[in-house]
Please model this.
Amino acid sequence: MTGIVVIGGGQAGAALVAKLREAGYSGRLTLICGERVPPYQRPPLSKAYLKGDMERERLFLRPESFYASQDIDLRLGDRVTEIDPAARLLKVGGATLAYSQLALTTGSVPRRLPALIGGSLRGVYVMRGLADIDAMAAEFVAGRRLLIVGGGYIGLEAAAVAASLGLEVTLVEAAPRILQRVAAPETSNYFRTLHKSYGVRLLEGTSLDRLLGSGTVKGAVLNDGRELETDFVLVGVGVSPATGLAERAGIAIDNGIWTDELGRTSDRAIWAAGDCASFPYKDMQIRLESVGHAIDHAECVAVNMLGAGLPYIAKPWFWSDQYDVKLQIAGLNSGYDRVVERSGKCISTSIWYYKGDQLLAVDAVNDPRAYMAAKRIIEAGQTVDPRLVQDPNTDLRDLLVTAAAPQTKASGF
Amino acid sequence: MSKITYIEYGGRQHVVDVTEGLTVMEGARDNSIPGIVADCGGACACSTCHVYVDPAWVDRLPAKEIMEEDMLDFAYKVDPVRSRLTCQIKVTEELDGLIVQIPEKQI
Ligand SMILES: Cc1cc2nc3c(=O)[nH]c(=O)nc-3n(C[C@H](O)[C@H](O)[C@H](O)COP(=O)(O)OP(=O)(O)OC[C@H]3O[C@@H](n4cnc5c(N)ncnc54)[C@H](O)[C@@H]3O)c2cc1C
Ligand code: FES
Model:
């Protein structure tokens, strides 16, 4: 009996092994973790943990005793360097390990700046793992100057933490506006105003030309020729799926490790889930980078490895915490052709994305009720009249009642 | 340490000691108690850490903040009085003896 091996002990890997046991798999089970610690949550890394509001022990997804009690062989600090699909063998830490079925939950890797423009200077950080945060923790001291490259969620969350701790924060975003890739201008506007009110210097439509310094970073030159001094730099310019291992093994890659609706790769004995995998969604092959998806995808793959034949239907959701503002996103807005905004109480608002009559997604800012209502409607494949949404007198509860299947089925989706 | 009793749907009881400062959700997670899913890890963003608090304990807990109340509004089979999100309840000495019931499912 060779058993199941899971490569990558992150959010997806942890969910996958737990689900295999819960679903009755009693054979050998190995979880190989490239990092030296048991699987943990990443979201707090750019939020409460970075700020010092959350202790390290609280990050772990399960106590270490869980793995032993479930007879899961947890290997910490081991990296798989090669897979031989024909022989169903892999290389890990110099040894060879056989598998009957294999799951890849290798996550993603942050993009770095090229060394040519100063990307490898000391004081230049990325934010993906616990080790990254621990390396930069000592830099987060009031009065120091931080340059953040990239105005996506991670860059903005780090800016919020740094500004709250009293650092002097400058953030450059090459696109015309922050969050351009993921959100409508209304959402960008909200967060621009928020960050400016906390003193963050936001330079949109501005890119980094190069970093300055010898050994340690000292400053930066921007594309408009401006020069600024900085004590350290955080690069938040997105991630790439960790596909190298699969690619070298000859497994098909398509915007990540390609999987079918069951989560199976181009090799019948190899599966993939979470950040590293692309999967069919409506008429597209997409990839998602979120906790909710990593868990659901992994759990679906687990039961399919045991023969369930259950197609994965993604129900995208996400959140981001900045200062005392919580953004919650339900659905996926890609392909939207208009938005409507619904103002809530005090500083709450929500942005509703439509394609034709079909509600695609909602960004809810400090408005959990809008988020929860929209999530229900979207996941049921229904829609609501934008005029009702916009009307402040509409009770969100009533929206659930009036929700209906769209009259004109959104085409091409 | 405070003793907390988690009752699974179906009646199975787990009595565990939880360190003060952790949340009631973290107490369940660290003791591998099934049924409290906690997808978002305690960010008050998923509502999958929902329980029914024992009636005798309802008034002894700190009140819900608006965020928790609004999330609960749309959770699965909510009880207006007894439902709480466990990630929003910090364990203190006063909670020694707390009893919570886990719902049939989370969403
Ligand atoms: C700072 C930060 C904040 C975030 N905030 C949010 C948020 O608020 N909400 C949200 O929904 N999502 C958030 N995300 C995204 C979310 O954390 C990821 O989508 C999720 O972790 C993906 O899970 P995964 O298991 O696919 O990958 P990961 O969690 O990245 O795990 C992959 C693991 O595989 C290991 N690995 C890779 N290759 C090998 C190998 N060859 N051998 C052994 N091990 C290997 C890696 O070391 C890693 O530990 C955030 C991410 C980051 C980095
Ligand atoms: S753990 Fe997600 S809301 Fe409590």
